[in-house]
Amino acid sequence: MPSECAACGDTPAAHPSIVKYKIHHKTVYRYAEPVRRSVHELRLEPRSGPLQAVQAWHVSAPGNLSEARDGFGNIIHNFTLTGPASRIEIIATGEVEVNAEEGQTGFYDLPDAGEARVSPLYFVAPTPMTAAPPEMRAFAAPFLAAGHELPALLALADGIAGRVRYKADTTDVGTSAAEAFHLGSGVCQDQAQVMVGACRAFGIPARYVSGYFYDPAATEMASHAWADICLDPDSGLWCSIDVTHRCVTDGRHIRLAVGRDYASAAPIRGVLEGGTGETMEVTIDISAMA
What we know:
The protein is α+β, with helices and mostly antiparallel strands. It has one domain (18-289): C8orf32 fold (Roll), CATH 3.10.620. It is built from 5 helices and 15 strands. The protein has helices spanning 102-105, 134-144, 150-163, 177-183, 188-200, and strands spanning 18-45, 52-60, 66-69, 75-81, 85-99, 107-108, 165-166, 185-186, 206-213, 223-232, 237-242, 247-248, 253-259, 268-274, 279-289. The strands form 3 sheets. Strands 1, 2, 3, 4, 5, 14 and 15 form a 7-stranded antiparallel β-sheet that branches. Strands 6, 9, 10, 11, 12 and 13 form a 6-stranded antiparallel β-sheet that branches. It has a two-stranded parallel sheet with strand order 7-8. A hairpin with a 4-residue loop joins strand 10 and strand 11 (237-242). Helix 2 packs across helix 5 and helix 4 crosses helix 5 (188-200). It is globular and about 55 Å long. The relative contact order is 0.26. It comes from Cupriavidus pampae. This is Transglutaminase-like domain-containing protein. InterPro entries: Bac_transglu_N, Papain-like_cys_pep_sf, Transglutaminase-like.
């Protein structure tokens, strides 16, 4: 299935410390030849945490949804279609309150009581999509030579945004960080994966984040992606950096899921039998609530 990821406006805006959003995310897949059978995995429900509080959320799909948590703490839904389908519609809607102040200085992302979650050190190992070739490691080295405090990480993000320029339709969901770095262009997914890969190359735990970015001036909203960097694995202290907008995340960012790379945090993944001629239509509406 194609990616829904795209960048939004890149002009910082003034924002209050607490912002509440209403979100409606609809994805429609259409097929020239009907799908005979399909299995779907959704990461379309945000969870409450130190940066946000989910007030209400609902996911609907053409099938019985089962809910679980993965090893990263994400809420996942699964459903299976066993009959022919020429159209599959998935809708996620709800309200999320974002705490902008916490994202400025870092946040403690610890498991809830009784919840098992992987150690931050799990995010040190590279994946095929985030492995850093020698030239990418050499690029990151001057930024991280003195450590990985927040100013160094922001400087690295700024460097990556300049090195991997945002340009739509030059990459796809299978593009690796190394490929995007070599190409010199990509979208938010690619910039985030390059940031993740560069940090991991120096033993710094880093993870990929999928979510939304609210830009009141945008004519169309889209999914977005950024990176979490672990400042202290022992305490679970992280910071969250949006490479595309060259900033620490703030009241404009709504988190959906985290993973080792795009593949493990994608909003929608599916395996199909049949279903040729697939097209995808995504509509995302985000409104700030008073």
